[in-house]
Amino acid sequence: MSEDVLRLGIIVGSTREGRFAGTVSGWFADLARQHPGLEVDVIDLAELDLPSVHPADLTPELLAYTARLAVSDAFVVVTPEYNHGYPASLKYAIDSAHAEWQTKPVGFVSYGGISGGLRAVEQLRQVFAELHAVTVRETVSFHGVHDCFDESGSPKDDTGPAGAAKLMLDQVIWWAHAAKEARIRRPYR
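User: That's the sequence. What structure does it adopt?
Assistant: Structure tokens below.
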């Protein structure tokens, strides 16, 4: 992988049966793959076999998961809003790592009802700040998500979401390059 290519970990935060996460994350991952300079790794929490209790020692599944985070230069979290917050599965996955998040940028794609998942995003910003990650300002948000996509999984009107995704990815990439260069010059403590 070239020095200029960044590895973007897309974290799919919902594990709920019947979830809409596959539609939203699939659309976003396709867009991210078209963005120059990115190698995309979709980390779907529903497909991981993470333990239901935080173990004293890391399990092979947790080691594999945190290894994927460690090699990522940046992240985008795709999250719904459940009861004015983000899913417990996402909180567990975030808390299962620590140093792997440090000094890396995090962007958000959220979805839900009238708020479009933005309340979940605001809570996640606080969590990632505690982990020494940098969240970017721009987000992608789908309000009334079930009405935003057609039967094929494409947004009915892609102009706004695609433009917001490009702005957010541009910010994530800028921060990822800046942080990567800074880590090379001076280790983060």
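Helices lie at 21-34, 60-70, 88-95, 118-130, 159-185.
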